[in-house]
Design a protein that fits this description.
Layout lengths: L2 E6 L2 E4 L14 E5 L2 E5 L1 H6 L14 H14 L7 E7 L1 H15 L1 E8 L8 E15 H11 L8 E6 L3 E8 L2 E11 L2 H12 L9 H10 L1 E4 L2 E4 L1 H23 L2 H6 L2 E5 L6 H11 L4 E4 L6 H19 L6 H7 L3 E7 L3 E8 L3
Parallel strand pairs: 5-7, 5-15, 8-13, 13-14
Antiparallel strand pairs: 1-16, 2-4, 3-4, 3-6, 6-7, 8-9, 9-10, 11-12, 15-16
């Protein structure tokens, strides 16, 4: 059975002390990296002044390291043992970053974190050992979740991942992913920027960061000068603009008639799949030809696929233990399979014992 944690991909450096401001680690992540302290995720959104994250950062960058450490800390908060880890990147950056991942994430990590945010202790250290690191394209992680997870999808289908920084799509055949069909394009942040520009015509937005605006976008409601304003109609408008100007033209170029002759299903994943207005756009364009389905808890789809990949890798190692010496066995067979999706809006970490 897989367990997941999900938190906003936001962080902020801080020189403040926080005592008993959260009810658990997930809501009170504060880490030390180098000589600086950082609040991360839900705590950064609540207590920070300018919580942020750049789009599609690489594994060598500070913010990626912070979010990855936070994810690993959550993964081991109730579990011990070495980790078999899989991470992913959008197709547009996968080739660029894949060779850096093992250097940054592999091996032993000593994470210093503040337990005072949700308990009585202050800074503690935790040692985490990553036995193996695998990297895959984000869209491949989503396909793995569909084929190897609870849904056990068979046959050919279209896969679309509606992420915040990047939207990706591909055709998945029974024999594998169709490389010719893969495409990356602007994500939901395109619509959030349109949303911001429209709001600025009427309201002073108090220099909110992109992630703070995304929260308002999700809620469909903003509060200005103590007055609540419903903005769901505006959200619907900009999502349709985003679909018509970005998604639809790119899919028309990537998906050809031969693909439609072989597929009768399209699956949507990523945080953007929570917006019924956007899902309706897909149904209007493809509903006569395809059955459109949304993955359960769509923002966790990629991390589910990464975790399943880690599990498969761990089992492969376990099956060959008789040919290994003890040191190699301990290195290659981990007790915990983890999928880590450091997304642009949310970081999702999914874990499972490889024997489950």
């Amino acid at each position: 059975m897989m367990k997941s944690y999900n938190f906003p991909s936001t962080y902020e450096a801080t020189n403040q002390e926080f005592s008993h401001v959260a009810d658990c680690l997930l809501n009170g992540i504060k880490l030390k990296l180098g000589n600086n302290d950082y609040i991360i995720g839900n705590l950064a959104l609540r207590e920070g002044y300018s919580p942020h994250k750049n789009i599609n950062t690489g594994p060598g960058e500070e913010e990626y390291k912070l979010l990855a450490q936070a994810g690993l800390l959550l993964a081991t908060s109730e579990n011990e043992g070495t980790i078999n880890l899989t991470v992913g990147f959008p197709f547009s950056t996968y080739m660029l970053y894949r060779d850096q991942v093992d250097e940054v994430l592999g091996g032993k990590h000593v994470i210093t974190f503040d337990k005072g945010t949700f308990g009585d202790c202050q800074f503690e250290t935790k040692e985490i050992v990553i036995a193996n690191v695998d990297v895959m394209p984000e869209i491949a992680g989503c396909i793995t979740a569909l084929r190897e997870g609870a849904l056990h999808v068979q046959g050919n289908f279209f896969m679309v991942s509606l992420g915040f920084g990047t939207c990706e799509a591909a055709v998945s055949m029974s024999s594998g992913m169709l490389n010719r069909s893969t495409v990356s394009m602007n994500g939901i942040n395109y619509a959030v920027k349109l949303f911001e520009h429209e709001l600025m015509k009427k309201y002073y937005m108090e220099l909110k960061t992109e992630h703070q605006l995304d929260i308002l976008f999700q809620k469909g409601q903003i509060t200005i000068n103590r007055v609540r304003h419903d903005v769901t109609d505006l959200r619907k408008k900009v999502l349709r603009m985003y679909y018509n100007d970005v998604i639809s033209p790119r899919l028309r170029k990537s998906f050809i008639d031969d693909d439609f002759s072989k597929c009768n299903q399209m699956y949507l994943a990523g945080g953007g799949a929570y917006y019924p207005e956007l899902v309706e756009c897909f149904r209007e364009e493809f509903g006569d030809t395809l059955t459109i389905s949304v993955y359960p808890e769509p923002e966790k789809c990629a991390s589910h696929g990464y975790c399943l990949n880690s599990k498969l890798k761990a089992r492969t190692g376990a099956n060959s233990f008789e040919t290994m010496d003890p040191d190699d066995f301990l290195k290659n067979v981990s007790q915990l399979a983890v999928g880590l999706d450091v997304g642009n809006a949310n970081t999702c970490v999914c874990l499972s014992d490889y024997n489950d």
